[in-house]
Amino acid sequence: MNERMTVGVAGSGTMGTGIAIVAARGGFPTIVFDVERSRVDASIAQMKAFFGKSVQRGKLTSDQVDEIMSRVSGTSDIAQMARCGLVIEAIFEELEIKGRLFSSLNEVCPPTTLFASNTSTLSITEIAARSGRDDRFVGMHFCLPAQLMKLVEMAPGLNTSPKSFEQAWQLCEAMGQRPVKTQDEPGFILNYFLVPFNNDAIRLVEARVAEPVEIDKAIKGALGYAMGPMELLDLVGLDTQVLLCEALHGVTHEPRAACPPLLRRMVAAKRLGRKTKRGFLSYETAAIFGA
């Protein structure tokens, strides 16, 4: 039964932590996996901080938070993922690294376990081909921040079975999310537009047309966006934006998807956004958005 299925989240960064919040809040026993235990512990601490803010804002009670967190566990032992009925990968946008992770998961997880990738630019079919179970593999791209955004882009690979896709769709809805179906094409729906758009905003800064804070004010004020592109880039992580650019530009050759030089310089200077407390904007804390 879906309500008893254990959901594994492979990757404990900003995206993985957000997905784990969604799964646990939705009533699923949730395992956070990362190769380094310190990163797992930091992720669970961020989850607790996020729910603590929810209590302060009157959205949850302390008892409800205790119940949610009782469903959460963490591990750096991949063998523990054998308990999962669904594993959602949320690591770097690099095909070979994702492929190696899924190959390892395939060795420990039962044949019935569904695999999903949170990739936003890479081919689901290509990742699935490295997983050992491409018929039970789907794309589940959660929008950032996952703990606040409901939309999930769902993409089948060429060999994904209709039964597997339907099961993943139902699980997504059971978590309280709103899935939309998209084909296995570069960028799916959102990043097809968003990666070039964010790059355009970076190029405005690069050309000294406007300061980052002014660009965000303009976009939010005139276009009605809840978050400006510079805020979003800092939340995603500027190092992640580089990987997104390389992945999308590598398959589409769209000039606007090419990585702006300023972005590479900022990454070299370790100005990565919220996680280093300094990107296009500055931050007092590296806590996940909403915490």
Secondary structure blueprint with pairings:
Layout: E1 7-10, H1 14-25, E2 30-33, H2 37-56, H3 62-70, E3 72-75, E4 86-89, H4 95-108, E5 114-117, H5 124-129, E6 137-142, E7 151-156, H6 162-174, E8 178-181, H7 190-206, H8 212-223, H9 229-236, H10 238-252, H11 261-268
Parallel strand pairs: 1-2, 1-4, 2-3, 4-5, 5-6, 7-8
Antiparallel strand pairs: 6-7
Helix pairs in contact: 1-2, 9-10, 10-11
Question: Any descriptors?
Answer:
single chain, alpha/beta, N-(1-d-carboxylethyl)-l-norvaline Dehydrogenase, domain 2, 8-stranded mixed beta sheet, 11 helices, globular
**Biggest sheet descriptor:** 8 strands, mixed
Beta-strand content: 5-15%
CATH architecture term of the largest domain: 3-Layer(aba) Sandwich
Q: Please give the oligomerization state of what you see.
A: single chain
Radius of gyration: 19 Å
Description:
By secondary structure, the chain is of the alpha/beta class. The protein folds into two domains: 2-181, 3-Layer(aba) Sandwich (Rossmann fold); 190-276, N-(1-d-carboxylethyl)-l-norvaline Dehydrogenase, domain 2, CATH 1.10.1040.10. It contains eleven helices and eight strands. The protein has helices at 14-25, 37-56, 62-70, 95-108, 124-129, 162-174, 190-206, 212-223, 229-236, 238-252, 261-268; strands spanning 7-10, 30-33, 72-75, 86-89, 114-117, 137-142, 151-156, 178-181. The chain has an eight-stranded mixed β-sheet, with helices on both faces. Helix 1 (14-25) packs across helix 2, helix 9 crosses helix 10 (238-252) and helix 10 packs antiparallel against helix 11 (261-268). The two termini are 31 Å apart. The relative contact order is 0.12.
